[in-house]
Amino acid sequence: MNPKTDWFVTKQTKWQEAYLELRIIVLDCGLTEELKWGCPCYTIGKSNIVLIHGFKDYCALLFMQGALLKDTKNILVQQTENVQSARQIRFKNVDEILKTKSTIKAYIKEAMGLEKAGLKVALKKTTEYKVPEEFQTVLDDMPELQKAFEALTPGRQRGYLLYFSAAKQSKTREARIEKYLQKILDGKGLDD
Length: 192
Prior knowledge:
Blueprint: H1 6-10, H2 16-27, E1 32-36, E2 39-44, E3 47-54, E4 59-63, E5 76-77, E6 87-91, H3 94-99, H4 101-116, H5 133-141, H6 143-151, H7 154-166, H8 170-185
Helix pairs in contact: 5-6, 7-8
């Protein structure tokens, strides 16, 4: 157990008991406990395998390369359509965790095996994402914006493309693009 994660698993939340049980299960699989993104994250070497996190309606184990797991029990959840590799096992109470303890361990062991074998999810390249017509028009009209956008990291580029594309109406896409032009020119991501 890493003392840096104690605050997360012992804080007074409706998931406290679930967090403690999940921690015991994961550590029993021989992973190293670290604190990443404000959550207990379990690793092999420098590779993240699984983390514990909670939301309003559920707590979860998030498998970093979960898309590669066989999911024989059909319990893995893809958080959103844009999540490429990670998958969650969600729990609404500690009893669900206790009932699926052996399954959880089997999934963790499988994830560890995938990591040791060096297998990774083939991620979609940024160039494969659709550039909204409204954004392409602005890029064509502003070469300095095109250059600034291309200088962003692939993750920042994807963030903008997904955010701009998510708007259903052209007017909303245009408003979003206008709002973030300066951030792109400043070399910043959507959430920077």
